[in-house]
Amino acid sequence: MRTDGADRAAGADRAAGASRAAPPGPGGDGDDGAAGHRPFRLTRWFALASLGSIALVGFVSASLLSTFLADRMLHRTGEVTMEFVHSLMRIHDGTRFFADGPADAERFAEIERVFLQVSRMQDVIHVNLYDPQQRLVWSTNREAIGRSFDFNPELAEALRGELAVESDILTPINYIKPEHMFLTSGKRAHAVEYYVPVFDAGGAVAGVVELYMSPRSLFEDIEQLSRRVWLSSAGASLFLFLVLLGIVRRADAVMQSQQRRLVERESMAAVGEMASAVAHGIRNPMAIIRSSAELVADDDAPGAEQARDIIRQVDRLEGWVRRLLAYAYQSQREPEPLAIEDVLGAAAASFAREFERRRVELVLEPGPGLPRVPAERDSLEHAFSNLIANAIEAMPDGGRLVLSTRLAPDGRAVVVEFTDTGVGMSEERLARLFQPFQTTKSTGLGVGTRLVKRTVERLGGSIAVRSRPGAGSTFSLTLPLKTPR
Q1: Does domain 336-480 match CATH 2.60.34.10?
Q2: Where do you find CATH 3.30.565.10 in the chain?
Q3: Is the dihedral of CA 417, 418, 421, 422 positive or negative?
Q4: Which of 179, 214, 329, 449 has the fewest beta carbons closer than 10 A?
Q5: Residue 259 and residue 263: Cα distance in Å, rounded?
Q6: Alpha helices (H) along 298-404
Q7: Based on the number of CB atoms within 10 Å of its own CB, is 22 exposed (0-12), middle (13-18) or buried (19 or more)?
Q8: CA distance 255 to 224
């Protein structure tokens, strides 16, 4: 038959096993064997997602920026070209070049004289003159003169009074316009077409001058600038990716470290419970065995030597139990007599600015002549701070927090109470209050009240809670005047 202590030891062992089996959490390398799911690796997924996203954004940004710069440079060159053409038209009264009807010999000769000179300018490879009916008045290709071309979106735009620019640098051209058939092979490659509207004295469009140009220096500048834009975008994207990846890797490492510490603490709690169960379950039987063996060992009867071996082995087991307990509670210091009012006051003082900011009225009600309580100051002050912080969180619109101390009715303990006028808690919430990782806070882990409970219970005390929704909460800590053995 299993003893009560053995049952508790088995339960503690199962708790320790459960703690060890728990997955290490976000970004960890654990494996959820029960569910059969692979662990979520934060750094790997972030690296893949961010690399794809940053590369896409960098590609789109570089494409848009290089296209915008090329467009602005080509249009700026077109504006300079338009100013030149307008000056030329003013000098030669060029609006008459687009008069209705076929050009007479004298007018044609003047057009020829002016625009043949223009066609011989550097970077100019072809010139066309259109009247408002989209008919070619003059062209460097004599075969095209007199023809009309209906399909020409850029020409139509120029006839509306706007400078039109066409180039495969801006938009790949997948069609051939009718006037292109009069260009010699290869002349149109990497060319820019400028459609310059010519205005008469009344501001109406008299005609359009079209110049096919191949400004090599401009193309080289655009290509160099685009290359720099792409290199800058790639460098900026890589830098951003590395910075973000470094931050996430650091955050991932911190989360894993915190998760490991949480698992270790839970494991330590399981070890402590197991150690307590083992100590409780086997120390009394070991004491009886040792006493019985001592009776035999004191005599010279047969078996005395074996009895002394039993005593040595019992002492060895007792040493193991002591070491196990020491390991389980290795974080504890030796308790010292403390004035509860001082510890409580120090914890409350650390929230002075928070009380003012949250409009919380603090009321201290110390009991008279209270004896000192044996405890570890840092742990106890941390427990008090946890409860004060929870009380402040429960009063988002301000309120009143009363911290009181008094002697227990039996005179063996000091009672410390934290009473707030906050939102209170439901019965369901109260039932889960001291369970780890149960919290209603978006930024909390849900271990604060659990740690308070462990601290108080480690001192041999107890904690009780009274609360109702809308009526506030009261946490009562009972701390014994004697250190538990």
Answers
A1: no
A2: 336-480
A3: negative
A4: 329
A5: 6
A6: 304-328, 340-349, 352-357, 377-393
A7: middle
A8: 46
Q: What would the pLDDT profile of 313-351 be if each residue is shown by its tens digit?
A: 887 677 656 645 544 554 556 778 889 899 899 888 878
Q: For 240-295, what is each residue's pLDDT tens digit?
A: 999 998 898 888 888 888 887 787 567 666 656 766 776 767 777 888 888 888 77
Alpha carbons 482 and 461: distance in angstroms, whole number = 10
CATH 3.30.450.20 residue ranges of the chain are 122-214
**Alpha-carbon separation of residue 169 from 74, 221, 226, 447, 473 (angstroms):** 9, 13, 11, 63, 73
User: How many Cβ atoms are within 10 Å of 475's Cβ, its own excluded?
Assistant: 22
Measure the CA–CA gap between 211 and 78, rounded to whole angstroms: 10
Q: For residue 325, which phi and psi values (nearest 5 degrees)? A: -65, -40
- Within 10 angstroms of residue 189's Cβ, the number of other Cβ atoms is 8
Scan for tokens 């082995």, then name that residue.
Answer: 313
SS3 state of residue 374: strand
Q: Residue 335 is encoded by which pair of tokens?
A: 């308790």
Sheet (strand 205-213) strand order: 136-139, 124-130, 205-213, 192-199, 164-167
